[in-house]
Amino acid sequence: MTTEVKWSIDGDYFQACSCDYGCPCEFEAPPTSGFCEDVSVWRINQGSYGDVSLDGICFGVAARWPQALHLGNGTAVPYLDERATDDQRNAILQILTGQAKGVGPFEIIITTLSNVLEPQFVPFEFNENGKNSSAKMGDTASLAFEPIKNPVTGEPEGIRVIHESGFFFKEAEVVSAKEMKSSLW
Predict the structure, then answer these.
(1) Domain-by-domain residue ranges, the chain?
(2) What does the mean pLDDT of the chain come to?
(3) CA 164 to chain centroid
(4) Neighbours of 40 (CB within 10 A)
(5) Are the beta carbons of 143 and 177 closer than 8 angstroms?
(6) Tell me, what's the pLDDT at 124?
(7) Nearest to residue 57, comparing CAs of 130, 139, 124?
(8) Which residue in 81, 133, 137, 152 has the fewest CB atoms around it within 10 Å?
(9) What are phi and psi of 17, to 5 degrees?
(10) Does residue 23 contact residue 65 with C-beta atoms inside 8 Å?
(11) Nearest 10 degrees: CA dihedral of 81, 170, 24, 47?
């Protein structure tokens, strides 16, 4: 009999996708251009997988779905912090691939992927700067944000979304993706 490993992560999460503002997949709507490309990155401020500390470790994913995310057939590449120990790498891969049972989007997202590429171990840059935040995963993936601007005045807007049944977030600040790159596409 196997026992489930208790795990938790508390940290910062950035996500950019190829759609218009507000990720339609989060609201059960079709992607803006008919397909979905996504780069997501997490910085774990405090976390553990069993007795393995995950504090300070980063991980991310670049993924592409040919249609809406929920229709599946996606391809993803996991990115893991090159500073992570073997135990930390294993723990994050267990969480990220949905093998570690628990609360979070990972168990759901993995069911939409038909191809998960080998993990890439890369340096992470995580720049938290409000609406102008950015992250970089080696030379293979990056994302950067800027405020959404009022189309009439050009002034920055402050937009927050509360989505009680959301699986990626319950509350988020909405910004515009200034950059989203991945070697996956």
Answers:
(1) 7-182
(2) 91
(3) 19
(4) 22
(5) yes
(6) 98
(7) 124
(8) 152
(9) -135, 170
(10) no
(11) 10
